[in-house]
## 1
Amino acid sequence: MCGIIGILGGKAVAPLLIDGLRRLEYRGYDSAGIATLSNGAIDRRRSEGKLANLADLVDRDPIEGTIGIGHTRWATHGRPSEANAHPHANERVAVVHNGIIENFQELRRELEAQGHVFETETDSEVIVHLISEQLNQQKTPQDAVAAALKRLEGAFALAILFAGRHDLMIGARRGSPLAVGFGSGEMYLGSDALALAPLTDRICYLEEGDWVVLDHGDAQVFDETDQPVAREVKQTALSGAMIGKGQYRHFMQKEIYEQPAVIGDTLHSLINPMSRTVELPDVPLDLGKVSRFTCCACGTAHYATAVAKYWFEQIARQPVEIDIASEFRYREAPMPEGGVGLFVSQSGETIDTLSALRYAKQQGQTILSIVNVPESAIARESDGVLPTLAGPEIGVASTKAFTTQLAVLACLAIAVGRARGTIDGEQEARLSQSLIEVPARVTEVLQSDAAIKAIAADLIYTRDVLYLGRGLLFPIALEGALKLKELSYIHAEGYAAGEMKHGPIALIDEDVPVIVCAPSGPLFEKTAGNVQEVRARGGAVILISDRAGIERIGEYARHCIEMPAIDPFVAPILYSIPVQLLAYHTAAQKGTDVDQPRNLAKSVTVE
Ligand code: G6P
């Protein structure tokens, strides 16, 4: 989603702004722009499409100044175009905005009636005119912003520049995150700490309703009632060096290959390898006495909770409900006494997940979250946080965040089982041991990369692909289909194998590949039956299974991907890898934009 950077500095600011926007590219965008003060006057460059277009424009038509704001826009109100790209500005004020102003039509009518002339179709432009209207009434910039903020309904993060004021930048947040960075004699604003990583490691996160006035040396934060407040300045561990592609062609490929390391890091933070027991930090409740876990998330993170439901039920006999956060937040679901709301999110900023969390809190639930960004809003609003140690994930399609979420959820299921007395020490040791071995098994699976690439070459001309799985592998079928469609734009559907006869079987012919995730285990024979049914209708099966499974039904498959033999408990983590690689190689060979697929955003901070 949209990204913001603001720099109040001492050197030429345009290249620094474009660099900052580059670090925000991973969030997804379709236009970009910057504004600076050049001899006190607001100057802008904006362009549709990729940042390279903006960089070219600035090369052809340089822009001066030492203070500036920049933005990557993911279109909501108004199509992606240069005119609708931020910053929005008139001769007095320039603004970049993330989020949605819900009452913009009403405000626009009112401002037009006062003589303001609008240039764009966006909701954001009203902010420029609201502030200018206050400045026209001789208010100071601070007072003008304070008054304008009170008129805005909806969600926003803002960075604001004022003509003639080289020493002043104002930021504000409600709903969308905004971080303030402290440099030496320079100050920064960023929609996340990654944007500011190479500039400073001293960051302060604004809280809900806060706004901030920056000058060259300091930041004064005010709360929503305009009272000055102190917000903690933290040292962040992010560094600019962490976000290169290294030897890989795409960030997604790099992130797939990082999985043995980051799953290992995450498991090491939760499992004592000597005693083979799970030791969870920061869980402020008795896990044996939870009436129900209600898990909410979006996209790939939702599929992690779908796997967790099987684990919690099978290992801990723990009642669990899962829901997509955007549905749950409006369902008015009654929540039980003694219940836990469990929220899973890579970014920790997904607006629907955050809103579902707030609803669960109002309903008296204890809030646990599994997040990859420890400073995020979801983490900050939780009673307990179980971090995934995946490091920054830049590819829009989630990979290492997903498998580390699974690693944390598996540990949590074991801890709940132990607390509820459904597993004994021996079973806990067996399950922990199978998790401890996952990073090594993932490394083995990655050795099939070239073979999977060759199979993907067969997928690039297909129109539809089906994914089938049962039990713990059903969510992996869903995740495989999501990955393929979002990256390669090939229509794909994931199905519980047992549901195939209830509809999808009608689609099967020789042009529809069926990818079957079927490790040996209790449900294998059932899925083997489905493979026969696909073959009988001429469908081409791509079988992902272990040696025993391939020996049993491999002859009916067009391709087989051989997986290590593993405890069925950890199969969802392992079987995520081949479906990621299939989607990656299909997209890379088709030539789509793997790291930033069209229309998608990394972090969905608007509804
Ligand atoms: C977007 C991303 C997905 C991600 C989902 C949830 O759709 O493209 O990769 O799974 O948001 O994001 P979160 O940050 O909450 O995990």
Note: The longest strand covers residues 93-101.
## 2
Amino acid sequence: MCGITARVGTDGSLGPLLDSLKRLEYRGYDSAGIAVQNGAGISINKCKGEVSALEDALATVSHDGPIGIGHTRWSTHGSPSDVNAHPHTGNDGRVAAVHNGIIENYVELREELTERGSRFTSETDTEVIPHLVEERLAAGDDPETAFRTAIDRLEGSYAIAVIIDDEPAVYATRNGSPLVIGVGDDARYLASDVPAFLHRTDQVVYLEDDDVVVLTADDHRITDLRGTPITRPIETVDWDPEDAEKGSYDHYMLKEIHEQPMALRQTLHGRIGDDDVDLESFPPGTFEEVDRVRLLACGTSYHAGMYGEWLLSNNGVDANTFIASEYSAYPAPVDESTLVIGVTQSGETADTLEALSAAREQGARTLAVTNVIGSTAARTCDDALFIRAGPEIGVAATKTFSSQVAALVLLTERLVRDMTGEPTTDYETRFDALESLPDHVESVVNGTQAASISQRWLGDSGHFFIGRGGAYSVALEGALKFKEITYEHAEGFAAGELKHGPLALVTPETPVFAVGTGHHQSRLESNVNEIQSRGAPVVVVAPRTATRLVDTADEFLPVPATHPDLVAILANVQLQLIAYHAANEMDRSIDKPRNLAKSVTVE
Ligand code: F6R
């Protein structure tokens, strides 16, 4: 996820664009850049780092101009660097472009353009855009036609804004990525999200896919891809600019729960082939020398690691997960044939980094599964697999858990094939289910009854969560989310372990959330009976096809029927929503729970 913005005014645009980028920084913060044009050419400033680094760089810059574009980046193609930062230009520097999304056919376009003389300087997919526009301008097209012809060549998802050296306009379009116009008194704005300009105007025009916009200081002209004019209403946004960074959501956590379909699409994008996974840096054979796998992580990432361990173990791989902070207390056998996987959203968690470093010293090969390109884990491990979930602002991890698990499902396939010589059982149906996962999550988020169910037992003495196999890690995660943001007592248990002690806690005042996946179903049904006979209400989270389980439930939170290995990911989304709505009702500080920080960089 990245943030793009643009402004066309009659005065300098540099300051307003910088302001907008600060407000869009939640969308990405590994590099930033601005291009301005004053009728006599384009000048670009961009650099690696947060927007504040760009601000420092701009402090000594004298050139400004009324027309400009800006970008704050969350890397998907190419590491964070000055060169990969947007805006990008073509050979002649006549065109500058910013882009949010993924250009799927950029490799073919790059090859084609290179053959015709384009020289590329970055590793990004975006750079093909200014080259395509410049090529059409050189061929004699007028600016709008050149822009249209260029975007006609693009496949993928994108929001794009382009400026041309001697044109008093910004050209923009969208397909699958957000873009909104701001109508000011003396300027027009464009951005990925309203907060970028809400402090300047509350008059907005929401663009639809395939709209093409030509923005000038006092006008915005919208057409479809063929050039037919389109009228879109100007709407008044009644958000408080202070809160608007969260868009229309009350909390970042809720926003991020809703972003999970998009995050998963990005995680999975281009990585599922016809008959095998296609993990960019890990071709078949990469892990042939590996004999065993150890996963190290903390908190939510630990639960994702457990999910990975369960999948690997079920497919014949010797795998174990360790709480990273406990790793040094366990003299686990590790040698050159051990692959140690650090699962860490931020890539900066001190406990995980220390455990990885200890494993490295013992000779293990290390791999980071992380969200942050350029993070310490990504840089210091031998390899990295990026989950591409986009920035997560809420302290409680939500979308990154789903993306971590999805990435681990993909990695499992590579590891199992390389280590056992066989694909995982059922891989074809699991691949199909993975492809459908974003849509399935979308239907859970849009159809959930979690808000009302979460209110039924508020204030009870405890909330318990149970599951078996992959659903056990989700039971732990459901409980962690609940305690983290409600500050109420919550515990997750392996369903079969209840009778060995925790059942003593179960009373009519302790609702139990039971996650049913289709694996070990009849045993889970027995556990539910044990709980209900002690008077505790049971909320079943499962597909409707688990009829016996569903029929016994006091409440039911359905998830779509899919491959049983993936059901728990969907159930987890329901549990995130339970925690969220309970905490909201209790008026908790959801995005910044007490005593907790997003990235724990101390041991
Ligand atoms: C809980 C949560 C934490 C993190 C943990 C590890 O919602 O977010 O438990 O999962 O601090 O952080 P990363 O994944 O950045 O290593």
Note: The mean pLDDT is 93.
